[in-house]
Amino acid sequence: MTTQASVLANLAEVRAMIRKHKRNDFIFSIIGLLALMLGLLTLFTLFIDLVATGYPRFSLDFLTNYPSRKAAHAGLLSAWVGSLLVMLVTFISAVPMGVAAGVYLEEYAPKNWFSDLIEINVTNLAGVPSIVYGLLALGLFVYGLGFGESILTAGLTLGLLILPIVIVNTRESIRGIPIAIREAAYAVGATKWQVVFHHVLHYASGGILTGVIIGMARAIGETAPIITIGALTFIAFLPPSPVSDVAPFINVEWLSSGFTVLPIQMFNWLSRPDHAFHINAAATGALIIVVTLLMNATAIWLRYRIRKNIKW
């Protein structure tokens, strides 16, 4: 009887502990849901306010006109073209290098203290404030290498900003590939490079692509590093076209051209006392949020489609 009573007492304690843990889990899930809803509600409120304020400027002319001293005629043509060209340089400078660095660190680098040191520094760089990259670019690219206040400087600056993000996401995506995939490839005689290129990168492409798009979405809204390197706040011309009608049909003069981007144009309009320019800034802010959300939604959709088509 004593043994049975002891077992029943232990069983009651276990059940009480389970109920307590379930209650704590429920409380934590409610707190997490409330925190999520608070963030989404804040973003939704901000977005609705920007749309309501900037609605009068939502038109094709707003996207095709140059900035002007008259708010009713001012547009975003030079700003969104500048953003596209800066993002092009950012993508070319950061993505191939970031993916290659992530593959090397995860698949080829020896596991020693030096690799651990690199990993720690890359992870820390992903959390460095963007203004620090702007100060680095000002000393290195603008004055050190003499690139000046150009599209090339802005693209390389934002490339440095998202490089750690691309590296970390690439490594995390590669780590998610089952070891059995590699072992099966080695079993049929594949080389190290064939395993990495044809199997590991193929299966990790969804996660890598997601990290790249999220990094680009962050870069397109950055203002501090662009201001630091001296982006123009008022520009009424477009950079030279990257494409030429003369062989080899590539023009690089646009890399050294002055520029502005969407966040800088928004900042310029907000700094003016005329309320009409504040309406333009609100419309620009709503446009930036829409572009960012579309990029993140595209990343999620591509990741879902790619993973859906993968057969382990």
Structure description:
The chain has 312 residues and is mainly α. It folds into two domains: 4-55; 59-309, MetI-like fold (Orthogonal Bundle). The protein contains eleven helices and no strands. The chain has helices spanning 2-54, 60-64, 77-108, 113-125, 130-144, 151-175, 179-187, 192-220, 224-228, 262-270, 275-309. Helix 3 (77-108) runs parallel beside helix 6. It is globular.
- CATH class of the largest domain reads Mainly Alpha
CATH evolutionary superfamily of the largest domain:
MetI-like
Mean pLDDT: 86
Q: pLDDT under 50 segments (min length 5)?
A: none
How much beta, percentage-wise?
A: under 5%
Task: Return the CATH topology of the largest domain.
Answer: MetI-like fold
By secondary-structure content and strand pairing, the structural class works out as mainly alpha
From the N-terminal CA to the C-terminal CA, the straight-line distance is 55 Å
Number of strands: 0
Helix content: over 70%
Along the chain, the helix and strand elements come as: HHHHHHHHHHH
Rg, rounded, reads: 26 Å
CATH architecture of the largest domain: Orthogonal Bundle
**Number of helices, where a helix is a run of at least 4 consecutive DSSP H or I residues:** 11
Q: Specify the biggest β-sheet.
A: none
- What is the count of distinct domains? 2
Shape summary: globular
